[in-house]
Amino acid sequence: MHAAHEVAGRVEFLRQAMLAANREQLAGIPMPGLTYGHSNGRLETAEAFVEAIASGADTFLKLECSQQTIHVEGDTAVVRHVMDGSSARGGDAPAAFHVGVLQVWKKTDNEWRLLARQAHKI
Hints:
The radius of gyration is 14 Å and the shape is globular. It is built from 3 helices and 6 strands, in the order H-H-E-E-H-E-E-E-E. The chain has helices spanning 3-20, 23-27, 46-54; strands at 30-37, 43-44, 58-73, 76-89, 95-108, 111-121.
Protein backbone atom coordinates (compact mmCIF):
# COMPACT_ATOMS: atom_id res chain seq x y z
CA MET A 1 0.00 0.00 0.00
CA HIS A 2 1.24 3.46 -0.84
CA ALA A 3 2.34 5.46 2.23
CA ALA A 4 -0.07 8.35 1.60
CA HIS A 5 -2.99 5.89 1.52
CA GLU A 6 -1.79 4.33 4.78
CA VAL A 7 -1.65 7.76 6.41
CA ALA A 8 -5.10 8.68 5.04
CA GLY A 9 -6.41 5.50 6.66
CA ARG A 10 -4.89 6.47 10.01
CA VAL A 11 -6.36 9.99 9.78
CA GLU A 12 -9.79 8.43 9.20
CA PHE A 13 -9.22 5.95 12.06
CA LEU A 14 -8.42 8.89 14.34
CA ARG A 15 -11.59 10.72 13.25
CA GLN A 16 -13.74 7.66 13.92
CA ALA A 17 -12.08 6.97 17.30
CA MET A 18 -12.71 10.58 18.35
CA LEU A 19 -16.38 10.33 17.41
CA ALA A 20 -16.74 7.00 19.23
CA ALA A 21 -14.67 8.18 22.24
CA ASN A 22 -13.02 4.76 22.14
CA ARG A 23 -10.24 4.79 24.75
CA GLU A 24 -8.43 1.70 23.41
CA GLN A 25 -8.38 2.98 19.83
CA LEU A 26 -7.41 6.51 20.89
CA ALA A 27 -4.54 5.23 23.06
CA GLY A 28 -2.95 3.45 20.10
CA ILE A 29 -2.83 6.53 17.88
CA PRO A 30 -0.35 9.01 19.41
CA MET A 31 3.39 8.80 19.88
CA PRO A 32 4.29 9.09 23.58
CA GLY A 33 5.57 12.64 23.04
CA LEU A 34 2.47 13.89 21.21
CA THR A 35 1.76 17.60 21.37
CA TYR A 36 -1.89 18.22 20.53
CA GLY A 37 -2.84 21.84 19.94
CA HIS A 38 -6.35 23.27 19.78
CA SER A 39 -7.33 26.40 17.85
CA ASN A 40 -7.87 28.26 21.15
CA GLY A 41 -4.24 27.69 22.14
CA ARG A 42 -4.87 24.84 24.59
CA LEU A 43 -2.16 22.17 24.41
CA GLU A 44 -2.45 18.54 25.48
CA THR A 45 -0.06 15.65 25.97
CA ALA A 46 -0.82 12.19 24.57
CA GLU A 47 -2.35 11.14 27.88
CA ALA A 48 -4.46 14.30 28.21
CA PHE A 49 -5.68 13.99 24.60
CA VAL A 50 -6.89 10.42 25.16
CA GLU A 51 -8.40 11.14 28.59
CA ALA A 52 -10.30 14.26 27.50
CA ILE A 53 -12.11 12.37 24.75
CA ALA A 54 -12.48 8.94 26.38
CA SER A 55 -13.80 10.43 29.65
CA GLY A 56 -16.39 12.56 27.87
CA ALA A 57 -14.81 15.85 28.94
CA ASP A 58 -14.55 16.63 25.21
CA THR A 59 -17.45 15.19 23.21
CA PHE A 60 -17.40 15.29 19.42
CA LEU A 61 -20.82 15.13 17.81
CA LYS A 62 -19.67 15.69 14.22
CA LEU A 63 -16.24 15.69 12.55
CA GLU A 64 -15.84 16.13 8.81
CA CYS A 65 -12.56 16.65 6.96
CA SER A 66 -12.17 18.27 3.55
CA GLN A 67 -9.43 19.68 1.35
CA GLN A 68 -6.99 17.10 2.72
CA THR A 69 -3.41 16.93 1.47
CA ILE A 70 -0.79 14.42 2.54
CA HIS A 71 2.94 14.77 1.96
CA VAL A 72 5.16 11.82 2.92
CA GLU A 73 8.90 12.22 3.36
CA GLY A 74 10.48 8.94 4.45
CA ASP A 75 8.97 7.91 7.78
CA THR A 76 7.24 11.27 8.35
CA ALA A 77 3.95 12.52 6.91
CA VAL A 78 2.42 15.97 7.01
CA VAL A 79 -1.36 16.14 6.72
CA ARG A 80 -3.39 19.31 6.27
CA HIS A 81 -7.16 19.54 6.10
CA VAL A 82 -10.15 21.66 6.99
CA MET A 83 -12.24 20.25 9.82
CA ASP A 84 -15.88 21.11 10.33
CA GLY A 85 -17.77 19.75 13.28
CA SER A 86 -19.45 20.29 16.56
CA SER A 87 -18.30 19.49 20.06
CA ALA A 88 -19.17 20.05 23.69
CA ARG A 89 -16.58 20.59 26.41
CA GLY A 90 -17.22 19.94 30.07
CA GLY A 91 -20.99 19.71 29.74
CA ASP A 92 -21.31 22.98 27.80
CA ALA A 93 -23.83 23.27 24.99
CA PRO A 94 -22.53 21.93 21.66
CA ALA A 95 -20.71 24.47 19.51
CA ALA A 96 -19.85 24.30 15.83
CA PHE A 97 -16.31 24.83 14.62
CA HIS A 98 -14.53 25.38 11.30
CA VAL A 99 -10.75 25.08 11.62
CA GLY A 100 -7.65 24.25 9.66
CA VAL A 101 -5.61 21.33 11.00
CA LEU A 102 -1.98 20.34 10.61
CA GLN A 103 -0.99 16.82 11.67
CA VAL A 104 2.45 15.22 11.70
CA TRP A 105 2.56 11.41 11.60
CA LYS A 106 5.64 9.22 12.09
CA LYS A 107 6.03 5.62 11.04
CA THR A 108 7.49 3.52 13.81
CA ASP A 109 7.43 -0.27 14.14
CA ASN A 110 5.53 -0.45 10.83
CA GLU A 111 2.68 1.76 12.08
CA TRP A 112 1.83 5.42 11.50
CA ARG A 113 1.38 7.26 14.81
CA LEU A 114 0.44 10.87 15.50
CA LEU A 115 3.39 12.98 16.64
CA ALA A 116 1.87 16.49 16.51
CA ARG A 117 -1.41 18.20 15.75
CA GLN A 118 -2.27 21.88 15.61
CA ALA A 119 -5.61 23.42 14.74
CA HIS A 120 -5.93 27.05 13.68
CA LYS A 121 -8.82 29.40 13.06
CA ILE A 122 -9.68 30.05 9.45
